[in-house]
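>> Question from a student workshop board

For tomorrow's exercise we were told to take the sequence and the ligand below, predict the bound structure, and bring the output to class. My setup keeps failing. Could a helper post the expected result so I can at least see what it should look like? The ligand is zinc ion.
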Amino acid sequence: MLATDPRYKYLMDIIMPNSCAVCGKVIVWDKLVCDECAADMPDMFDGLILAENTEGAVGVFYYEGAVIGLIYRSKHGGAVNNFAELCAEKLAERLRDRGIAENIDLVTAVPMHRRKRLARGQNHAERAARFVADKLSRPVDLSLLERSGDTTEQHKLEKEERRSHAENVYKAAKHHSDIKGKTILICDDVITTGSTISACAERLKEMGAAKVYACSAAVSDVYRDSKDMDHIIP
Ligand SMILES: [Zn+2]
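>> Workshop helper replied:
Here is what the output should look like for this input. Compare the format with yours to find the bug.
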């Protein structure tokens, strides 16, 4: 049973009261955010980032303020299903508004190294992919790509290093399913320079994907002045 299932939510609320995806305040079992947060959401991004090798990437929030803490918590465990579901709902909405949603054949995620996944218990990008796939009613395939043993964290590198690092780290999984001619949606948690999704999209296209779109809960605030950037469609 996926965490978006109303039966799951109703039962979970008895064990652990439901809480607002943004501020954490206790709320009624079938809501995602409290009334105050619904009226005053953190700043949102609704552009389309034309990251290299992709047909475009959508995001929900800017990676700043309270959102940094929410992303951190969703990476390191904790009851963050509401935040994941809220982001998935918004991402599905943006993909529908741009006419992309109906073309998606398969949803996947930026892979995490096995050792790290074991340490954290789950891959947050995989959870995001499951939620987004659920909102779009599309199948999810989390065994298309693999991450090499290099565990250097992308966000600790400079822009140029990020690019070459990302290109070397992600590879096609040995026994991946046939994605020839398919349109793939790949999920990540934060889009900073776009080098991770660009590298993953490049692999997916080498594997035969026709189109690759990307989505993430947050994007760097450098994308804020999107009207002035030529790699962003407002
Ligand atoms: Zn709230």
